[in-house]
């Protein structure tokens, strides 16, 4: 393929026109405070921040109270200590720590996104060292977000266990107490209701291999179904957190590319500017 001089001149002229148009747009952009503020706002990182905070708040808020009551009801119903009471305090503290850590980490990622957005990027990442530091920081946070995404995927999958278990228990309780008679009316008599944990794959203590709940203990266990919606809401909250972290991951990858290619674009603009100045002097 042969490239003629007129093609090169045409490309150079077109580049100058585009650069001039962009310069005029930048001047109008600087004169408009609203557009300047919008250009410095990391909308993608802000959206990821909101999704992550909302998901974490729903997850922690819906699980803080049901964790304690559910474990206590299970221990009382089966008359055995399935979960140590000390673990209840640890789990509730873990929920608080998750809320604090995710809130702080999301805010840090929002700041990182702000530094790599629009005009702020050209003001912060100017020299070689600053760009290198920005790339290292962005790469580090990308790795951390990836690890946290895997952790939250495990949490989301684990949340399906109590949700499905409570769903099965709710239908078991409904089938036990609402028994249709021959006349079609529900049977109000107390049925002989028993539940064996081993039937549903729940591990039983070695010192109580035949543990099961019947009658009023079964009623206490059925009271767990009042927390079903909260556990499902916690599952939805964990899904929001996963979506927010995926969004953060995309933003960090884009910011890394912007920081890396920012110098090339700056050098290209400087070359076009020098070319325009030389052409003006020649005229």
Fold and architecture overview:
Helices cover 78% and strands 1% of the residues. The chain has eight helices and two strands. The chain has a domain of 182 residues. By secondary structure, it is mainly α. It has a two-stranded antiparallel sheet. The N terminus is likely disordered. It starts with a helix and ends with a helix.
Strand order of the largest sheet: 1-2
Secondary-structure class:
mainly alpha
Main β-sheet description: 2 strands, antiparallel
Strand content: under 5%
- The succession of helices and strands, N to C, reads HHHHHHEEHH
- Number of strand elements: 2
Residue-averaged pLDDT = 74
Number of distinct helices: 8
Query: How large is the radius of gyration?
Result: 31 Å
Distance between the termini: 33 Å
GO biological process, one term: neuron projection development
Keywords: Membrane, Transmembrane, Transmembrane helix
Transmembrane segments: 43-67, 87-115, 136-169, 231-254
């Amino acid at each position: 393929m042969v490239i003629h001089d007129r093609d090169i001149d045409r490309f150079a002229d077109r580049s100058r026109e585009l650069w001039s148009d962009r310069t005029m747009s930048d001047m109008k952009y600087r004169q408009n405070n609203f557009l300047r503020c919008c250009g410095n706002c990391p909308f993608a990182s802000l959206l990821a921040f909101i999704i992550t905070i909302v998901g974490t708040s729903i997850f922690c808020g819906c699980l803080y109270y049901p964790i304690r009551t559910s474990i206590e009801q299970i221990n009382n119903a089966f008359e055995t200590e399935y979960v140590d009471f000390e673990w209840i305090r640890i789990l509730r503290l873990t929920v608080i720590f998750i809320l604090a850590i995710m809130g702080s980490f999301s805010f840090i990622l929002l700041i990182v996104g702000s530094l790599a957005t629009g005009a702020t990027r050209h003001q912060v990442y100017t020299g070689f060292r600053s760009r290198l530091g920005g790339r290292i920081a962005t790469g580090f946070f990308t790795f951390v977000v990836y690890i946290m995404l895997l952790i939250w995927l495990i949490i989301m999958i684990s949340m399906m266990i109590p949700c499905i278990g409570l769903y099965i228990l709710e239908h078991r309780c409904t089938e036990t107490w609402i028994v249709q008679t021959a006349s079609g009316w529900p049977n109000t008599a107390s049925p002989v209701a028993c539940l064996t944990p081993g039937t549903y794959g729940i591990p039983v203590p070695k010192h109580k291999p035949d543990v099961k709940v019947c009658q009023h203990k079964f009623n206490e266990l059925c009271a767990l179904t009042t927390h079903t919606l909260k556990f499902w809401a916690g599952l939805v909250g964990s899904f929001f957190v996963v979506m927010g972290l995926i969004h953060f991951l995309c933003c960090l990858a884009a910011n890394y590319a912007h920081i890396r290619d920012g110098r090339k674009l700056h050098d290209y603009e400087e070359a076009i500017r020098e070319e325009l100045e030389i052409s003006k002097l020649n005229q």
